[in-house]
Amino acid sequence: MKIALIAHDELKDTMVNFCIAYEGILKEHVLFSTGTTGKRIEAATELKIDKVKSGPLGGDQQIGALIAQDELDLVIFLRDPLTSQPHEPDIQALIRLCDVYKIPVATNIATGELLVKAMERGEFSWRLYKKS
């Protein structure tokens, strides 16, 4: 599976800790991330991350393009609903694309854990409902 990992500034540490906790599962998949988040994950783990530009430089749009091209199976975007900054990636556009292309998207750690645990069990049924 191909997974995108994105986090607003205040949740980058949470994303890094998430990746450390689930490194054994995540290492079996192709991982994409926006630039800064990806660099921090790679520094803290042995995961290989295909990094796009940082969010403020268009990385969120590059992730959106991967969704539209059916290149992603799952998006984990840890968003900060209380203190997100104007320069941070636009979650609404990515959620819309995920809904259009039937890609599961987690916007918080609890949902991210549920989706990763489902992947660990081999439960990929959402792929059956994707459009061609």
Automatic annotation (TrEMBL):
Keywords: Lyase. One of its GO terms (molecular function) is methylglyoxal synthase activity. Its EC number is 4.2.3.3. One of its GO terms (cellular component) is cytosol. GO terms for biological process: methylglyoxal biosynthetic process. Signal peptide: none annotated. Residues 1-132 form the MGS-like domain. SUPFAM superfamilies: Methylglyoxal synthase-like. The active site is at 60 (proton donor/acceptor). Gene3D superfamilies: Methylglyoxal synthase-like domain. It is an enzyme of class 4 (lyase). It comes from the Bacteria. SMART domains: MGS (SM00851). InterPro entries: Methylgl_synth, Methylglyoxal_synth_AS, MGS-like_dom, MGS-like_dom_sf. Substrate binds at residues 8, 12, 34-37, 54-55, 87. It catalyses: dihydroxyacetone phosphate = methylglyoxal + phosphate. Catalyzes the formation of methylglyoxal from dihydroxyacetone phosphate. Belongs to the methylglyoxal synthase family. This is Methylglyoxal synthase. The lineage of its organism: Bacteria, Bacillati, Bacillota, Clostridia, Peptostreptococcales.
